[in-house]
Amino acid sequence: MPTKTFFNLSDAKRERLIDVATKEFSEKSLNEASINAIIKSASISRGSFYQYFENKEDLYFYIVKTIKSDSEELFKQELKKADGDIFVGFRNYFPHLLINMMEEPNANFYKQLFLHMDYRATKEVAPEELSSHEEGSIETKKSVFSFVNRTQLQVDSVQELNKLMRLITSIMMHEIIEGFARDYSQEKIKANFYQKLNWLEFGAKK
Amino acid sequence: MPTKTFFNLSDAKRERLIDVATKEFSEKSLNEASINAIIKSASISRGSFYQYFENKEDLYFYIVKTIKSDSEELFKQELKKADGDIFVGFRNYFPHLLINMMEEPNANFYKQLFLHMDYRATKEVAPEELSSHEEGSIETKKSVFSFVNRTQLQVDSVQELNKLMRLITSIMMHEIIEGFARDYSQEKIKANFYQKLNWLEFGAKK
DNA sequence: TATTATATATGACACCTTGTCACAATGCAA
DNA sequence: TTGCATTGTGACAAGGTGTCATATATAATA
Questions:
Q1: How far is the CA of B3 from the C1' of C13 (A)?
Q2: Nearest-CA distance from B182 to chain A in Å?
Q3: Portion 103-142 of A in contact with B at CB < 8 A
Q4: Each residue's pLDDT tens digit, B51-90
Q5: The pLDDT of residue A143
Q6: Best residue in A56, A134, A199 to probe B by mutation, most B CBs within 10 Å?
């Protein structure tokens, strides 16, 4: 996380820095992007940068966190509308996610992110509740899981439900990555995702 | 790909270089690994390195290709044994894959690979036939697909079958990555994978 | 207001990369 | 031996990162 000093900065300076960095990360991958380029564009001295951030990653994942809209909340809403049916919930949630990720202003940032994402980045992008995955402490906090109608699912516990939802999430992400890589239209990505969701929901076997 | 010059090298020199590089890539990620370290350990001059390889990636993916056992062939065999049932095929194939990836001598190399893998690397590791994915030219070559019993599946075409198998492959990889990240035992990884395979096969909905 | 304390800014520096290139040293064939 | 093709070499330019002693604001206190 950025330091207190960073958050003490004037809005103008802070936003300028973030804007410049976001632009850099939208054009280059995390590895290719350079602190030099950022501080030069933002007219900030090298020393200052390191007073705000531990390193490039620190800045990067702060931006990821910022950009990522509160998707979990949105999903909960769709889940409620769907009376706790996660398949319907995911289907209706997916278009929102696509828009957030594949349309301006975030499209290029996400493209770079997804095409160069490693395991760590995956966790940063995934909904927090699902990725945390502490097997014991799930039931305590009132969470997405409480909105799910489990009776209609082949799951025996919240842990299994968690696994199932994480599976769907990862399939979802996978489709978006594939979409970025192959320049698929949103429609095509949706079709691909829905097909996989159908297999998972009803079985791929006759 | 490495140059002709590289393959002209004496076995001793070539193997020494590959050994040293493999060790480096088993301890550090592709990004962290340094050509300097490799050429120093292998007692090779900087100029020579660039006469063998275009860059670090060139060497890296050559090693990946080498290390990766011909998994496709193994899978075909399991598929035949299973009378074309891909679910049985994948179930029986998975333990082989786990051993190849999670036991000596490849374990650390794969761990680094998987924990820092991006989209490109994903494609390098995935079975070639599945990753190529040229929608037209699939049926021509006699391939895995010809061993699959499609009648029992909810797929309408070879393209759909390809998608389904790519889905399973990606779930499989995902489980292995998760396993590396969380230091799961092979047994736990298997259990996780089989559960997901069951959902996919028979449906996650009651 | 003058002085002290705290927070912020700075850029030279050491140390690391990578890829290139002019040149040296081989090996092999005529 | 001469000549050509192949292989080997390390200094070099250009770029990267993180640190640190020092300078400059800004706030707080006497």
A1: 39
A2: 11
A3: 114-120
A4: 999 999 999 999 999 998 778 889 999 999 999 999 999 9
A5: 84
A6: A199
Q: Indicate which of B57, B119, B202 best probes the interface with A, i.e. most A CBs within 10 Å of its own CB.
A: B119
Give the CA-to-C1' distance from A91 to D29 in angstroms: 63
Using an 8 Å Cβ cutoff, are B200 and A204 in contact? yes
Low-confidence ranges of chain B (pLDDT < 70): 131-142
Question: How is chain B split into domains, by residue range?
Answer: 4-67, 71-202
> Would you list the DSSP string of B27-96?
HS-TTT--HHHHHHHTT--HHHHHHH-SSHHHHHHHHHHHHS--HHHHHHHHHHHTTT-HHHHHHHHHHH
Rg for chain A (alpha carbons), in Å? 19
Place of tokens 């194939």: B93
- The answer for residues whose C-beta is within 8 angstroms of residue B18's C-beta and 6 or more apart is B63, B66
Q: Which nucleotides of C are covered by protein (CB under 7 A)?
A: 7-13, 16-22
Protein-to-nucleotide distance from the CA of A39 to the C1' of D29, whole angstroms: 36
- Give me the CATH code for the A4-67 domain, please: 1.10.10.60
| Span A65-115, pLDDT tens digits | 999 877 888 999 999 999 999 999 999 999 999 999 999 999 999 999 999
